[in-house]
Amino acid sequence: MKEKLLKVLKRNLLIDMMYIDQNNVITKRRIKVAKITGNTIRAYCFTRHANRTFTIENILAFKPVIQKERDVI
Questions:
Q1: Is the backbone of residue 35 left (phi > 0), alpha (psi -120 to 50) or beta?
Q2: Is the CB of residue 31 less than 8 Å from the CB of residue 45?
Q3: Do the beta carbons of residue 59 and residue 15 sit within 8 Å?
Q4: Residue whose C-alpha is closest to residue 36's, from 65, 10, 72
């Protein structure tokens, strides 16, 4: 998981992730990873509109957000 998150950080991608918090509540978050330190990631959370720290082991799954370009007619 950490290796994949390092790729996300290097490529400056947005990701959608499923995360389980300290109270065992599962949430879906859209984040932009800013820093990876040890067992945690620091990211801007678009869901909460704030910088947040997430524990890597609590990330259940994630996928990059693919933004499609639209054709201009």
A1: beta
A2: yes
A3: no
A4: 10
